[in-house]
Each structure stands twice: as C-alpha cells, then as structure tokens.
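User: For my dataset I need records formatted as: sequence, then structure tokens, nothing else. Please produce one.
Assistant:
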Amino acid sequence: MFFIDITQKSLKFLDKLNHKDKDIILNKIYSIRNDPFRFVKKLEGTRLWRLRVRDYRAVLDILISGNKIIVLRIGHRRNIYDKLKN
C-alpha cells in the first residue's frame, strides 16, 4: 500500500472547488493506493504520472522504493499541463 502526500498547492486548488468535486477527486486519489499503476498514465518526457478524474487531472510523482505517491498538482484538464511547463 502506498502512502499519499498532497502538496499545499494541490490543497489550495481543492479548497476552491465545491464539496462534491473535491470529494470525488480525493476519493479517486485515495482509491489508487493499492495499485496506482493500474489507474495512472505516464507523462511523456517526465518522470511524472497523471490521474484522470472527470474534467480534472492530478499530476503525481510515484516513489516505488518509498511506497509514496506525491500529488504535485491538481487542475482542470484544459490548463494543468501548461502549468507544468512553468
């Protein structure tokens, strides 16, 4: 089982969402703890992964040796990848 670590930037984004969307995103993130590679897809050109949750994406860093999933960023699908380039 993997430990979930959510960054402050991700939590700040979640605070702006309504409770329904926030709950759906958090439930999906915590549901992948047992087998994360079944639900995520590798981002090209990086060591990061993405998790789809409706119209939102969570950008993850998965540390296999430490059994840790770090949620680096959460955002709407139309602009989450633009923010990664900055």
